[in-house]
Design goal:
By secondary structure, the chain is mainly α. It contains 19 helices and two strands.
């Protein structure tokens, strides 16, 4: 059987971490957070806390990734720690919702900003509208842009992980350079004309309630999501037991620094009252700092950031369904590895088709809202698996041991559980709907279990090449 090729070096891996996180979220989230935390200090603090938790999670996942350096990331760790059922439900949810709906959302986000630059290809330019009984059907030029972006980037990754990585690396360099220019110019201009916008810097009156902090932190963590991408591709990373911890730490620290500095510029550009409820906060801050002409340039930056993030997600997401299929826990054909390109081409195509259908159906956004609750639950369970495996398999070689064990992974798990409780109480309908999406996989699990599962390996060998 053809195996995946280890072709990602440290630079590729760091760029993959950054690229999987750095999308449109940083340009959209802060205005929503300002509604819950109306103070520059609290806004900066929540981004620091979110970045810190992301780094803690990365260091926790680093031990797991070096212990089991195979494709699939959290799916593999959950299977080793808790068994086939937990792993299957994660992988099932990841393929149908977490990964594919995330790809669809990024593609539609790219189409929205691309349409602002090229109005003839916008989401508001209809091509077809009709109905089939109770079902309304519509198609716009923007839908074709979104599906075309998924198809093009999937094709790029089809022909080998190196072609996908080269595109990803170039887009990361472009995004960092553009955001760094925005930050530097914003700090220079904002320091002179926007400093008064920081007053009052500290919150006045009573602090926001815990649900407000929880909602803001959830938004921040969603913006940081994707940092575990390199874990999903570990089987294609050179010397993963050395590369993974470095890539996770360097990538998450870089994103945290960029995101914090971007929020400092937002606060210099706009008073917190004008931030509240503003979705396209980055664009409004750019217009405030540099004039009306900056809006179009910023739209181009967001489009590029979203396209790059889309490319990163298309690169790493299929590795989860590939790992499931190889274990006999999903459609067998998704385990196919192309003998020439050495990538899971069938899994890449399957994700492209399903994500494209989600774009056309318009259901991706509601699916993401439903699954947020479950995603946090899986984060907590994966983090706790470090502790479970320390007790369950103490004799396994651990090339990297999580710093601050058990306190650091314990804190990561605890915070995710607190967020879980906050989501359950503040959004019970969405939480129950998300749980329902996951439980829909139970009959499917018993079906694939009846067909026979591959045994769990003790620890895949890390290829040092």
């Amino acid at each position: 059987m053809t195996e995946l090729a280890r072709r990602l070096n440290l630079t590729d891996s760091v760029y993959l971490v950054i690229g999987s996180v750095f999308g449109s979220g940083i340009f959209l989230t802060t205005g929503l957070i300002a509604g819950d935390l109306p103070s520059p200090f609290l806004i900066w603090l929540i981004w620091i806390i979110g970045g810190g938790l992301t780094v803690f999670g990365a260091m926790t996942y680093a031990e797991l990734g070096t212990l089991f350096p195979g494709s699939g990331g959290p799916y593999v760790y959950l299977r080793q720690a808790y068994g086939d059922g937990a792993a299957f439900l994660y992988g099932w949810t990841f393929f149908w919702i977490i990964g594919s709906a995330g790809v669809a959302a990024l593609a539609m986000g790219f189409a929205e900003y691309f349409g602002a630059l090229v109005p003839s290809l916008s989401l508001s330019r209809p091509i077809f509208a009709g109905s089939a009984g109770p079902i309304s059907l519509s198609l716009s030029a923007g839908h074709l842009v979104a599906v075309g972006a998924i198809a093009a980037l999937s094709a790029l990754n089809y022909f080998g992980i190196q072609s996908g990585a080269r595109f990803q690396n170039g887009m990361v360099i472009l995004r960092i350079a553009a955001l760094a220019a925005f930050i530097v110019l914003g700090l220079v201009i904002g320091a002179g004309s926007g400093g008064p916008n920081l007053r009052p810097f500290l919150p006045r009156g009573p602090l926001p309630s815990l649900p407000h902090f929880g909602a803001a932190l959830l938004a921040v963590l969603w913006t940081y999501d994707g940092w575990y991408s390199v874990n999903c591709t570990a089987e294609e990373v050179r010397d993963p037991r050395r590369t993974l911890p470095r890539a996770l730490l360097l990538g998450t620290l870089a994103v945290t620094g960029l995101y914090l500095l971007a929020n400092v510029v937002y606060s210099l550009a706009l008073p917190v009252g004008r931030m509240q409820g503003v979705v396209r906060i980055g664009e409004q801050a750019a217009v405030s700092l540099f004039g009306p002409g900056a809006g179009r340039l910023f739209a181009a930056l967001v489009a590029a950031a979203t396209l790059g993030c889309l490319g990163a997600n298309i690169l790493f997401c299929p590795r989860v369904s590939f790992a499931m299929a190889r274990d006999g826990m999903f459609f067998r054909r998704l385990a196919y590895v192309h003998p020439r390109f050495r990538v899971p081409t069938t899994a890449i195509l399957a994700q492209a088709v399903w994500a494209g259908l989600l774009c056309l159906s318009g259901t991706y956004q509601s699916l993401i809202e439903f699954v947020t609750f479950v995603l946090v639950l899986f984060f907590a369970a994966t983090g706790f698996s470090v502790i479970v495996l320390r007790r369950k398999a103490p004799g396994l070689e651990r090339p990297y041991r999580t710093w601050g064990y058990p306190w650091l992974p314990g804190l990561y798990v605890l915070v995710n559980l607190v967020i879980l409780a906050a989501v359950l109480f503040s959004r019970p309908v969405q939480a129950l709907a998300g749980a329902g999406c996951v439980l829909a996989g139970v009959p499917a699990y018993f079906f694939w279990r009846s067909k026979g599962l591959a045994p769990r390996p003790a620890a895949p060998e890390g290829d040092p090449r």
